[in-house]
Amino acid sequence: MKKPPPLKIDGASEREIAREVVTVLPELTRRDFLKGLVTLGGLSLATGVVLSNGAAVEKMLRAISRWNDGAQGALFDPKKLAQTYPESMMTRPFPFNAFYGIEDVPVVDGKDWKLELGGLVKDRKAWDLPSLRALPQEEQVTRLVCVEGWSAIGKWGGIPLGDFLRRIGADTTAKYVGFGCFDGYRSSIDMASALHPQTILALTYDGKPLPPREGFPLRLRIPTKLGFKNPKHIASLYVTNSYPGGYWEDQGYNWFSGL
Length: 259
Ligand SMILES: Nc1nc2c(c(=O)[nH]1)N[C@H]1C(S)=C(S)[C@@H](COP(=O)(O)O)O[C@H]1N2
Ligand SMILES: [Mo]
Description:
Blueprint: H1 14-24, H2 30-34, H3 40-47, H4 55-64, H5 69-75, E1 114-119, E2 127-128, H6 129-133, E3 138-145, E4 151-160, H7 161-167, E5 176-181, E6 186-190, H8 191-194, E7 200-205, E8 208-209, E9 219-221, E10 234-240
Parallel strand pairs: 1-10
Antiparallel strand pairs: 1-2, 3-4, 4-7, 5-6, 5-10, 7-8, 7-9
């Protein structure tokens, strides 16, 4: 995709911004609006262009876009890959974000930890860290895009979620995969995105076990979705046909939030 110049939004009225968005980003089509990509974070995810922040802009962009999860799901292309980057482009240090400050990062004991499984899964045995580390792993250098208007490139390694779901006998015709976390955070994704080849259960950051701030012992890394759909400190995974929502999703964030 051709990269448009960054938006000039400082001091502009919401109406001017709306016009800018459509003229400066010709790739922005009705389809993108339907897909819910028209937030600052969504635009960065779609175009690779990092936009400056602005609460008013975000609010306006939300207002002019029609959140429509049904339409988005129907448009999801399971083969379209998120952009990958050379390691030299990694953002150092990688920014931290959570619904609390970094001083409150949960300290999880890896020895006691087990990934609990639930819902439409045949083999619900819980998995400890050594058995997860023994599974085939993949690495990716991708960009994490937060709706708050920042993004950063990092390298994560882990188990392709699709492989894991098939291994545990998950019903891959079910609608949703949900995640519960140690800090009370929750999120959920559609099954097509769960089976996407770049969606991984990450155990490492930059080649080493995830540091606490990066979500030790296990996080979801899904580069085709916004940052808040990448739960850290995962405690449980379940497969379901009932809409699971999530921490931010329940507060009005667009549920699909992806490509
Ligand atoms: N458990 C948990 N996971 C979470 C969050 C959180 O508050 N708790 N915040 C989300 C948000 S909004 C973002 S942008 C990313 C940030 O990931 P990072 O700290 O690795 O940058 O984590 C996501 N996963
Ligand atoms: Mo975020």
